[in-house]
Amino acid sequence: MCLAVPGRVLDIEERDGTRMAHVDFGGVVKEVCLEYLPDLQVGEYAIVHVGFALQRLDEESAKQTLELFATLGMLQEEFGDPWELAAEVGATLPPAGEEARK
Amino acid sequence: MSETTETTGLRTPVLDVAAWTCPAPLRDQSRVVMGHGGGGALSAELVEHVFAPAFGGEVLGQLGDAAALSLGGVRMAFSTDSFVVRPLFFPGGSIGDLAVNGTVNDLAMSGARAAYLSCGFILEEGVEMETVARVAEALGAAARAAGVEVATGDTKVVEAGHGDGIFINTAGIGLIPAGVDLRPQRVVPGDVVMVSGAIGVHGVAIMSVREGLEFGVEIESDCAALGGLVEAMLGVTPDLHVLRDPTRGGLAASLNEIAAASGTGVVIRERDVPVPPAVANACAVLGLDPMYVANEGKLVAFVPRDHADAVLDAMRAHPLGTESRIIGEVVEAHPGMVVARTGLGGTRVVDMPIGEQLPRIC
Amino acid sequence: MKYIDEFQDPDLARRLLDDIHSTVTRPWALMEVCGGQTHTIIRHGIDQLLPDQVELIHGPGCPVCVTPLEVIDKALEIASRPGVIFCSFGDMLRVPGTGRDLFQVRGAGGDVRVVYSPLDALRIAQQNPDRDVVFFGIGFETTAPPNAMTVYQARRLGIPNFSLLVSHVRVPPAIEAIMRSPSCRVQGFLAAGHVCSVMGVGEYPELAERFRVPIVVTGFEPLDILEGVRRTVVQLERGEHTVDNAYPRAVRPEGNPAARAMLEDVFDVTDRAWRGIGVIPDSGWRLSPKYRDYDAEYRFSVDGIQTREPAECRSGEVLQGLLKPHECEAFGTLCTPRTPLGATMVSSEGACAAYYLYRRLQLTPATREASPVV
């Protein structure tokens, strides 16, 4: 229901009486049908599923959501947190892995 | 890749019964399906249940990318591979490049520098002569670049509709240097796992021009001959444990084959696996996992810890290995399985692909 | 990719996890409805990072998995007919019908093609006027509008050799069916974000109220999943049960009105069988009488095909969280990812298939001691 990704509209054209666009997904460009978002403009982002733009992506809302996440867990920071400790125990890679990420 | 690569099963002493995904292989498959050529579990079963028992022989039992032979006291590698790619020309290469580099790389994975190739063409009636000539030129150029000579060849034509334009088979031989013994059975816990650069590039380049999936992307196949890179690595130490070129089935298939054949566990750190943005994004759009996407110019190496840094340096100094990375290591836990530490700190099992990878909607 | 990468950020994920860990005081069972969300959870190992008290039950939201055996058998029959080009999303090819799958139909000479979009199938129909082109129209409310538009276009452009084999399903009736089950364990839902991008959230307040469960509209990246879990857990701890939208960048309350209008025009609501679960009233769509000429079931007269689900498969219980996959008698023996009996073993997102993989990891003694992963 399911795999839909956000892409940016590059250009819009009418074809066979259907509103079509080229949409950029981070360097991957596909043809997308805009019939369900007739007022979508070049430069805007939309959620695309199997070649159809289904909903406009609200960039302001995305920003606010990320800002909200950034304010979470501030309290725990001062005390060290159980999740990190659990994750450390799970770490099976020795320092050799660090070498590669210089 | 040669038929002998797609296996996990014949070395029964190390086979983990719990890792066996199908209790009744082939029984439900009365005909060949595409997955039997996909380099995953179905390919392995075909080799294990049909070809290996029919052929017999000790050498085939090695089931590596290439067979290591001893002939007149000389150690050599011998490999064959068939090429059926659509379209014939794709961004960054053609079936001609693949036909050379595929076999050269299979030989390289046993440490051998390819010396001679054979080349068999199966042409479909009606295919344009100019197309054949372009493929032949590409093949010749690739052979020269790899420093290998096409020494013998053959041509057959099949009726229109019975082929896909051009099929090519190549076989190659090369000498294995003294002291070099690359086999998954040599892998031990503590070995370091490295790749020679960005993964998934070839598969995404091919998919971008495949009918029904077409998309625009500025990415070219990484198709390249790896003989020189392997020589540079062996120059550091002949004591590498195993090399693979992760073609069909991608990095996931290669790591699973090695884990199964060596009876060890493989742990990789996902954020260290180099995936270019274009590959990641194409995979995001199509619902694919870069770990399962084909490469044609990359290798994965299992190296003793003591030599890891020096080998990595040598790889990075070679033009085809500048983006080499350590991605993980071999552990005693979970023998036969590949486990990835995810970017968030969780883990997931990276399983052997069953057949060809398909775009998802879900 | 912009708006994906940011929502995979490990540092922000830690903040969300910290918050969840410090909020939870007792056990809660949450269901993520959508298979795409299950995929994210498995792919990033999110379930292992949550507190032990938070149990995620993988819901019936993989459209590939829940397509009933009977419809698969109809697809196999149509795809086997001479002159037919059968087009499908890639992940449907591996789903077994009775005794075979679409790959095997292709192996036996059928013309089965993978396409990215239903519009690709329509184009194939235009290019092959002498062939019958059938598209396998499966999926939830997200995929239904693209398929509806394609049929609408076929009719508008007069492309007579195109038809759709429809097996669409709807989420709200499935949530209702799960909650009505007497032994249901689900206490809160992560609703499928992209379904709501189309349909809006109007169908959910009544369900949340009637069954007294929080329903949080949730996106698909790791941070989205964590935020969906966080908001659900906050509600549960407070004893609340409202509809909340944790995916506002892609979901408006009203959904997409143009898409909803098209769905009304092209489809009629119908009862639909779900693989492994059975018939759920009003849980599907079929083509409306106006589009009957484009209905593959009608055109190829396959409505007589009736198939019963295998009796051994208990995936319905698994989907409701009543049965752990390994407690099923068929698990790992009769039923494996290679030889699946039911919905939950079919795709890698299915609860049984996911469990199958991790159970192998668990069974390794060294892992059991060394790692908190499992």
Automatic annotation (TrEMBL), chain A:
Any one of the GO BP annotations: protein maturation
InterPro entries linked: Hydgase_assmbl_chp_CS, Hydrogenase_HupF/HypC
Molecular function terms from GO: carbon dioxide binding; iron ion binding
Highest taxon of the lineage: Bacteria
Family annotation (PANTHER family): HYDROGENASE MATURATION FACTOR HYBG
Similarity comment: Belongs to the HupF/HypC family.
Protein name from the UniProt record: Hydrogenase assembly protein HypC
Species assigned in the record: Streptomyces albiflavescens
UniProtKB/TrEMBL annotation, chain B:
A GO BP annotation: protein maturation
Pfam families from the UniProt entry: AIRS, AIRS_C
Sequence ranges assigned to domain PurM-like N-terminal in this UniProt record: 65-176
Top-rank taxon: Bacteria
Annotated InterPro entries: HypE (IPR011854), PurM-like_C_dom (IPR010918), PurM-like_C_sf (IPR036676), PurM-like_N (IPR016188), PurM-like_N_sf (IPR036921)
Domain PurM-like C-terminal: 189-334
Similarity field: Belongs to the HypE family.
Protein name: Hydrogenase expression/formation protein HypE
From TrEMBL, chain C:
Pfam families with a match to the protein in the record: HypD (PF01924)
GO molecular function, one term: 4 iron, 4 sulfur cluster binding
Keywords, ordered alphabetically: Iron, Metal-binding
Stored Gene3D superfamilies: 6.10.20.100, HypD, alpha/beta domain 2
GO BP annotations, alphabetical order: protein maturation
Family: Belongs to the HypD family.
UniProt protein name: Hydrogenase formation protein HypD
Taxonomic source organism: Streptomyces albiflavescens
